[in-house]
């Protein structure tokens, strides 16, 4: 959490409001991503922003799962807060017909931090990382290790703190951690977009805190973005999938900035490869691996195998 000034605390924690036309981002139009001032969670893309001539930054969309709506204390308006830390952002209004989406997030500039595209990852190396959660990490590890361009896949935990980053604690479901895999990949061979395409096909992104019989927040569908480029890519892909109605129900996948990744215990490494005959592997993991093999034959490593 970022240390706040007195005025930032007034707005973010005491639900105050900055004066109209006084905020840093009121007339701001640079390309990039707007983050929560307190916890740095990504909230809005620059293409969501429009000039509503209201005196505060206005957005007609949000990064999926980034903003939470609450009844305002005045009994009339709808408050918006950061979904990750609860920081007060402003209010949301519908029915004004200012854009095609007919939605206006009216946000205090002081509640946000802007990160421009020029501040994206400067390293031009083609080796990248992605961190994804979609149920049991044994399944995802087995699926992604199949793909050409994937260098390594490591099971682990993300979303909580170091003290609870262990299998026994995470399985209790109250640590904030999700079971995830961290994928090291060669972006010259496979892109982040292609990894996400496999991600959507390898789990159900419409079930909240559940994958099959695995139930709990540790099994939630989540993308832990390593940089704003990944945030933008994932957000746009979720929007396209939603518009095309690829899934019968709404996508509930969280999209948040990666803070920490904690590797899982060594016995989880290549679990399916070493324990393929166990009932769980035969009934849950193997069907997912076989499905991905059938769908993405041209992207598999030569020789196949987990």
Description of the structure:
With 306 residues, the protein is α+β, with helices and mostly antiparallel strands. It is built from seven helices and 17 strands. It has helices at 6-12, 137-144, 167-171, 192-202, 228-243, 271-274, 279-295; strands at 32-36, 42-45, 49-50, 58-59, 67-71, 78-82, 88-94, 103-107, 112-116, 127-134, 150-158, 178-186, 210-211, 214-215, 221-225, 254-257, 262-263. The chain has a six-stranded antiparallel sheet, with no helix packed on it. Strands 16-15-10-12-11-17 form a six-stranded mixed sheet, covered by helices on one side. Helix 2 (137-144) crosses helix 4 and helix 2 packs parallel to helix 7 (279-295). The longest helix is centred in the C-terminal third of the chain and has 17 residues, at 279-295. It is elongated. The relative contact order is 0.15. The model is unreliable at 118-123 (pLDDT under 50).
Brief descriptors of the model:
single chain, 306 residues, alpha+beta, six-stranded antiparallel sheet, 7 helices, 17 strands, elongated
Question: How would the blueprint of this fold be written?
Answer:
Layout: H1 6-12, E1 32-36, E2 42-45, E3 49-50, E4 58-59, E5 67-71, E6 78-82, E7 88-94, E8 103-107, E9 112-116, E10 127-134, H2 137-144, E11 150-158, H3 167-171, E12 178-186, H4 192-202, E13 210-211, E14 214-215, E15 221-225, H5 228-243, E16 254-257, E17 262-263, H6 271-274, H7 279-295
Parallel strand pairs: 15-16
Antiparallel strand pairs: 1-2, 1-9, 3-4, 4-8, 5-6, 6-7, 7-8, 10-12, 10-15, 11-12, 11-17, 13-14
Helix pairs in contact: 2-4, 2-7
